[in-house]
Amino acid sequence: MSFGAVMTRDVPVNKVEPKESAIKISNLRKVFERKGEEIEAIKGIDLDIKEGEFVSIVGPSGCGKSTFLHIVGGFIERTSGVVSVRGEEVGKPAPDRGMMFQESTLFPWRKVYDNVAWGLEVQKFPKVEIKERVEYFLKLVGLWEFKDNLPSELSGGMRQRVSLARVLAFDPKVLLMDEPFGALDSQTRETMQVELQRIWSESKKSVIFVTHDIEEAVYLSDYVVILTKRPSVVKEILKIDLPRPRDVSIRKSYEFIDYRNHIWDLLHEEENVKSIGGRSNAK
């Protein structure tokens, strides 16, 4: 990942930078019109996310994190700027981008197997390939034995794992995740973070992950992008130089706590920016 204000901490580097870009964003801007008034949500964001990187987006509430992600997904039209995935400009939703939301979007009347198969059926994959893919990804998320269950028969964490399997099954080039664990209790959330790290390491997807949870961002990410208050720009990009795979015990390390505190300080600083006098302290 590249940007002018990348900050690294004084710890060993454990990751070789990939060379090719998965997602390029240049001077992204979004303005909403409400009751005849223009509201600038995103002022100008530039990012270059490399193949296979896990990048988290954090920022003050209402700063446009989800708006940003939905623009990359093609669900919201940008006002100006360029967004491209592997060299193809984003204009609308497409199979090269898999989107996962805070609440599972499973069809309650379809069994687990059929929910995962749904996207493949829509794209008219051969039945043999659908079966192979569904079985592979349900086993990847550890839910093959629940293939005949309805979503209502699963816990919240299990439903999110089914949602993840459904997204991965059609093999998107990038994975966009909008606080997918936000509705889970803390213990289930931690379990899902461990599972996501494992699945990401096996699938090699490029990921943009929106979260309010600083520790979640540090634990999962190669980079954490900190946004300013609305209208948002990139305040800082923090490279997370922690070894992989990451055991949950790494949360107790001085390096982890240092990263967490640094991001907390940036967000706390942003919450205290005066609306009068502009945002001269934004980087």
From TrEMBL:
Coiled coil: none annotated. SUPFAM superfamilies: P-loop containing nucleoside triphosphate hydrolases (SSF52540). One of its GO terms (molecular function) is ATP binding. It comes from the Bacteria. Residues 23-254 form the ABC transporter domain. InterPro entries: AAA+_ATPase, ABC_transporter-like_ATP-bd, ABC_transporter-like_CS, ABC_transporter_ATP-bind, P-loop_NTPase. Keywords: ATP-binding, Nucleotide-binding, Transport. Transmembrane segments: none annotated. This is ABC transporter ATP-binding protein. It comes from Sporosarcina soli.
